[in-house]
Amino acid sequence: MSRPVSRRRGVLAAVLGKQPIGTAFVTPYVVFLAVIFAYPLGFAVYMSFHDYFFTAPGAIVERPFVGLANYATVLSDPAVRRSFVNVGIFLLINVPLTVVLSLLLAYALNAAIRWRTFFRVSFYVPYVAASVAVVGVWLFLFNSDGLVNRILGPLAPDPSWLVNSKLAMPTVAIYVTWKQLGFFILLYLAALQNVSKDLYEAASMDGAGRLKSFWNVTVPGVRPATTLVVLLATVTGANLFTEPYLLTGGGGPDGHSASPVLIMYQKGIEQGNPDIGSAIGVLLVIGVLLLAVVERRFVGREDR
Q1: From CA 169, how far away is CA 162, in angstroms rounded?
Q2: Could you tell me the residue range of the domain that residue 38 belongs to?
Q3: How far is it, in rounded angstroms, from Cα 32 to Cα 143?
Q4: Does residue 284 carry a pLDDT above 80?
Q5: Does 175 lie in the same domain as 91?
Q6: Res 282: pLDDT
Q7: 161 and 258 in a common domain
Q8: Which residues lie closer than 8 Å to 104 by C-beta, 6 or more apart?
């Protein structure tokens, strides 16, 4: 009786590994990732290599393999190429602004100042607020007769911010930076708790002022958090959809604020070409992965 029991235990240990309790806790999340992310990504790759189209439920149709034809169509489309340029402009503005502003504000909020809790909550409110409601406020501020243009007077741009081909995407980037800033401030606040106060005292004894202490102690001390912030800002920025869809009426003017995800939605859902939309999505995933590898190599090089 003991031999079959020990054999079953050996099989169970092989399946669950050396930490069966930990494996049991991790398994639901692994299943969640497989169902929510891995399967849709794999199915998108499949669609991108086939002549795929929507049909009535239960209909049996052939979807022939077309190789790289969908990718050739995507890469030859000026609107798609323009969207990738747009998201590049967005990331060049959004990611540095996010890192600099969230670190500086977290550093200030970490100090013993009055109303510190109030300011922390204030910066976090836009992040948890409904996008539609916040977009309405920004439309009121930045439309042609909005509050910002009234304050600027003759200095206001013409055409206005969100209908200006050169300013539409930078305006969207600033909006997203402002809205998501609270989340990244919290990341930096958590990282600042791990920076030893002894390092600041040592820097002060060596004659370093506040600026030098910040540059030589704070910045290196929160480098792992900076790597995380850069990667998260890049991934969320590459998935830009809601903001241009609501702020600029679907990527206007003339596609200068359209993102790849927005173009993917328009071509895949609105125009009924899921194979083309899937090809755009696969190219976007590859681009984001390559960009994340480069950022991890340069931003996080001192973490290793």
Answers
A1: 8
A2: 2-48
A3: 42
A4: yes
A5: yes
A6: 95
A7: yes
A8: none
